[in-house]
Write a structure and sequence with these properties.
Elements: E1 2-7, H1 10-20, E2 27-32, E3 42-43, H2 51-60, E4 65-68, H3 71-75, H4 78-84, H5 98-101, H6 103-113, E5 120-123, H7 126-136, E6 140-144, E7 153-156, H8 159-171, E8 182-186, E9 191-200, E10 204-212, E11 215-217, E12 221-224, E13 229-232, H9 239-259, E14 265-275, E15 278-285, H10 292-297, H11 304-313, E16 327-335, E17 347-348, H12 351-355, E18 360-364, E19 367-369, E20 375-377, E21 381-389, H13 392-405, E22 411-412
Parallel strand pairs: 1-2, 1-4, 2-3
Antiparallel strand pairs: 5-8, 6-7, 6-8, 9-10, 9-14, 10-13, 11-12, 13-16, 14-15, 16-21, 16-22, 17-20, 18-21, 19-20
Length: about 425
């Protein structure tokens, strides 16, 4: 098979790494890719949002399967455009991707199917939103209705924080049109877990769960980020609970979308809060999480490419996946100043030394290479340093040994990834 992966982050590096191991693969491309991906695939200088050029490239190179990594091209209709050109694409249509593209759309799906979630209201008038916050009080959660690159959610501890979030999103439009409407909901309390399934429109195949670390600093302090690390398995979400979340949240959403004439194919990701009243849905995403993708694919023993093809062909009812019993963990190394103002251009050394350590895999995200091969930071989240082990503690020790082997004074990471699952 001739395969095109779309994206340039750590998630896409992990996808390319897994797909490159498939005996079904003939040729692998990634657009636009990164220096780490370039060791596995031919990188093509096409932006992930340049759908017209991506379709033309796929046609010219007789691509058999397109695998989009990030959410923005999915919401923008990359799958619709590829399939209109006769090219299979393992991702939801723009209509189905509204599960991620609109918070209110997801909440409507929840209300229609009985999926447990936080109480909520949608507002497209800022003054009405402020009046609601004053009536309800805090803590309360304010979300931009549209895509905001993972930054459009404010968990407000005070009314003033919530009102400031409405001002930023709706009046100042810090997220553009994505903040023209907001969803305001009750603040759920508990442990958060990410549960993933591969879907073919009718069948959902469980891919497992991981726990992400959103805050930038140790002890879950500081601003929210795109994710500073993750681990799997999650003791708080054993297999029986994963199955229950699949049955109570993912399958009903899949069935409802099919009934609406917009079947969901691809990766469906449920962000779930484990509350005292049971699991409640925080949000759906229409793709793999990052950095959850990295740690989950390290556990996969089956052929990912075959599974993605089966999802496109509607054959998951007769498909199964094998997983290792190893624990896995990923530590994100970010550029100084992240998330507000990451510094670009600093030199990164020692990756070969880190990657040579046992059970370690380093995935690139925000990197670029000079003509002489010098590796530099070119984004906020720059690397995901991953490791596996018989126990989570063993995996964690290996991952942080690899972090220590990397020579990058301008980079930083959290030092407590996996803390909820480990004593002390």
């Amino acid at each position: 098979m001739r395969v095109l992966v779309i994206g340039s982050g750590g998630r896409e590096h992990a996808l390319c790494w897994a797909i490159a191991a498939s005996p079904l693969l003939t040729k692998l491309w990634c657009a636009p890719g990164n220096p780490g991906i370039a060791t596995l695939a031919d990188c093509v200088a096409i932006n992930a949002m340049d759908i017209v050029s991506l379709v033309a490239f796929a046609q010219d190179n007789e691509i058999d399967l397109v695998v989009p990594g990030p959410e923005a091209p999915l919401v923008a209709g990359i799958t619709d455009a590829m399939e209109a050109a006769g090219i299979p694409c393992c991702g939801p249509s723009a209509a189905a991707a509204q599960l991620e593209g609109s918070k209110a759309f997801t909440k409507d799906i929840c209300d229609s199917t009985g999926i447990p979630t936080a109480l909520w209201e949608r507002f497209d008038d800022a003054e009405a939103a402020r009046a609601f916050i004053r009536r309800r009080g805090a803590p309360i959660v304010v979300k931009a209705d549209g895509l905001a690159a993972g930054k459009g959610v404010v968990v407000a501890a005070t009314e003033q924080e919530a009102l400031a979030a409405v001002d930023a999103m709706m009046d100042k439009r810090v997220f553009g049109d994505s903040g023209a409407a907001v969803v305001i909901e009750e603040c759920l309390v508990g442990e958060e877990v990410s549960v993933f399934a591969l879907c073919d429109g009718d069948t959902a195949l469980l891919l497992g769960s991981a726990q992400d670390h959103k805050r930038v600093g140790d002890g879950d302090t500081g601003p929210n980020t795109g994710g500073m690390g993750s681990y799997s398995p999650v003791p708080a979400c054993p297999p029986a609970l994963e199955d229950a979340i699949l049955a109570r949240m993912i399958v009903p959403a899949l069935t409802e979308l099919s009934h609406r004439g917009t079947p969901f194919r691809g990766i469906l990701y449920a962000g779930v809060m484990l509350t005292e009243d049971g699991p409640k849905l925080i949000e759906f995403n229409a793709r793999f999480g990052d950095p959850e993708c990295q740690v989950l694919l390290l556990q996969l023993k089956s052929d990912l490419l075959a599974a993605l093809q089966a999802a496109c062909d509607g054959e998951l009812a007769n498909f199964d996946l094998r997983w290792s019993d190893l624990a896995s963990i990923g530590v994100v190394m970010a550029a100084r100043g992240y998330p507000e103002a990451p510094e670009a251009g600093s030199v990164i050394r020692g990756l070969e030394r880190a990657a040579a350590l046992p059970n370690v895999q380093v995935f690139h995200a925000g990197t670029e290479a000079d003509a002489d091969g010098t590796l530099r930071a070119a984004g906020g989240r720059v690397l995901t340093v991953c490791a596996t082990g018989r126990t989570l503690q063993a995996a964690r020790d290996s991952a942080y040994a690899a972090v220590a082997a990397i020579d990058w004074p301008e980079g930083f990471c959290r030092h407590d990834i996996g803390w909820r699952a480990l004593p002390g």
